[in-house]
Amino acid sequence: QVQLVESGGGLVQPGGSLRLSCVVSGFTVDRYNVGWFRQAPGQERVKISCLNSDSNTDYHYSVKGRFTISRDIDKNTVYLQMNSLKPEDTAVYYCATDQFCAGIYHIRYPEAWGQGTLVTVSA
User: Fold this and answer.
1) What are the tens digits of pLDDT across the range 55-88?
2) Cα–Cα distance, 28 to 73 (Å, whole number)
3) Is there a contact between 122 and 90 (Cβ–Cβ < 8 Å)?
């Protein structure tokens, strides 16, 4: 059974940093693309970063240069390091399998989402 579990959210001041973790079970993290998405109150869910099965990455323009996605195969975990956080980064963050990322398109893949973790950036 495929499962993704996020952790690491919390309250941080503007300019601060957080690292989100996404522990994956049911497949190895280098087998399929994995993405990070976020949904702010009253807004649609947006993909902000992804890491494909070839280790290539992609970022939404709003987080490029501030966020870094990575993975640890031994821990079967995907991370999102978030630096220079801004109040507009406040949202629920989700990890999920991703059909398309940085040139890799999976015709078949186990579609799954985590439960989300709340990040609040406020003074």
Assistant:
1) 999 999 999 999 999 999 999 999 999 999 999 9
2) 7
3) yes
Compute the C-alpha angle 42/48/53, nearest 5°: 140
Burial 85-115 (b: 16+ CB within 10 A, else e): beeebbbbbbbbbbeebbebebeebeebebe
Q: Which residue has the tokens 């690491």?
A: 8
Question: In this structure, are residues 38 and 46 in contact, taking their beta carbons and an 8 Å threshold?
Answer: yes
Compute the distance between CA of residue 50 and CA of residue 34 in angstroms, rounded to an integer: 6
- Percent of residues, the chain, with pLDDT higher than 90: 99
Asked if residues 31 and 105 have their Cβ atoms less than 8 Å apart, the reply is: no
